[in-house]
From TrEMBL:
Cleaved signal peptide residues: none
Pfam families in alphabetical order: ABC_tran (PF00005)
UniProt cross-references to PROSITE patterns, sorted A to Z: ABC_TRANSPORTER_1, ABC_TRANSPORTER_2
Gene source species: Lederbergia citrea
SMART domains linked: AAA (SM00382)
ABC transporter domain mapped to chain residues: 4-228
Name this polypeptide is given: ABC transporter ATP-binding protein
Keywords, comma-separated and alphabetical: ATP-binding, Nucleotide-binding, Transport
UniProt lineage: Bacteria, Bacillati, Bacillota, Bacilli, Bacillales
SUPFAM superfamilies recorded: P-loop containing nucleoside triphosphate hydrolases
PANTHER family according to UniProt: ABC TRANSPORTER ATP-BINDING PROTEIN, TAURINE IMPORT ATP-BINDING PROTEIN-RELATED
């Protein structure tokens, strides 16, 4: 479960083409990142997958079902953690599950503890740091029954130290609860550190400029960031993005 297929998706706003015939697949259990410049249509793509808006053309297929224009079938974690301020940590964590039936409180407590938030179960979100709030939002996404989790730049508001910590935490928890993840970011390091595969988007309108399978072994830890292999990949992706923006040939 969690196999996503996007078929020739197009979307314009006020006559401006944002996505043009975009096709991609996310395999079951895969961590796929879409890397693209600001304004390349990454959030628009997520709004389409989540059924918040309808495409002009194209289809979205999840586990062989056409879900185009349908809401509530994927788990979505936005840039800001979007916790309800009047609900406690545990009640926020169980929210996605509650909306789809009965919540498993024991499981939620277990995950909160694994996320290093033991003792905060009954606290309100205001008592948490930015990184802690993101953990709660991610637990909520993981506990929701949907097989595909879409993460829209979830760490962009965090400082570098917290972000790296969150990356390591996310990979550890993802390895344990194995779900399909579609992640968008414009941070190259983040994309390389986390992903099985990276799709680079071009802008105006968005098309797939390049696609890369990332060979780093798992589990990954922060030492990877300083290896020659990592820096080599970083140069390759930089070149892919910036040559394209400068209007030169792409690197395939
Ligand atoms: N509801 C809307 N009405 C009109 N234009 C829109 C709407 N939503 C998005 N756009 C336009 O579509 C383009 C792509 O926006 P989108 O937010 O999807 O890009 P993005 O890649 O997620 O950018 P960022 O990385 O800055 O968040 C932008 O030019 C934006 O102004």
């Amino acid at each position: 479960m969690g196999h996503l297929e996007i078929k020739r998706l197009s979307k314009s706003f006020d006559g401006k083409e944002v996505l043009k015939h975009l096709s991609l697949q996310v395999e079951e259990g895969e961590f796929l990142t879409i890397l693209g410049p600001s304004g390349s249509g990454k959030s628009t793509l997520f709004h389409l997958i989540g059924g918040l808006i309808e495409p002009d053309q194209g289809e979205i297929i999840l586990d062989s079902n056409n879900i185009t224009g349908q809401r509530g079938l994927i788990s979505y974690m936005p840039q800001q953690p979007a916790l309800l301020p009047w609900r406690t940590v545990i009640d926020n964590a169980m929210l996605g599950e509650e909306l789809h039936g009965k919540a498993d409180k024991e499981k939620a407590v277990e995950m909160i503890q694994k996320a290093g938030l033991a003792g905060y179960e009954d606290s309100l979100p205001d008592a948490l740091s930015g990184g802690m709030k993101q953990r709660v939002a991610f637990i909520r996404a993981l506990l929701s029954p949907q097989s595909l989790i879409c993460l829209d730049e979830p760490f962009s508001a965090l400082d570098d130290f917290t972000r790296l910590e969150m990356h390591q935490w996310l990979l550890a928890i993802w390895a344990e609860y194995k779900r399909t993840i579609l992640f968008v970011t414009h941070n190259i390091d983040e994309a390389l550190f986390l992903s099985d595969r990276i799709i680079v988007l071009s802008a105006n309108p968005s098309e797939i400029a390049n696609e890369y399978k990332i060979p780093f072994k798992r589990p990954r830890n922060k030492e990877l960031l300083l290896t020659e292999e990592f820096l080599e990949w970083k140069r390759k992706l930089n070149k892919s993005i910036f040559q394209r923006q400068d209007g030169n040939e792409t690197d395939h």
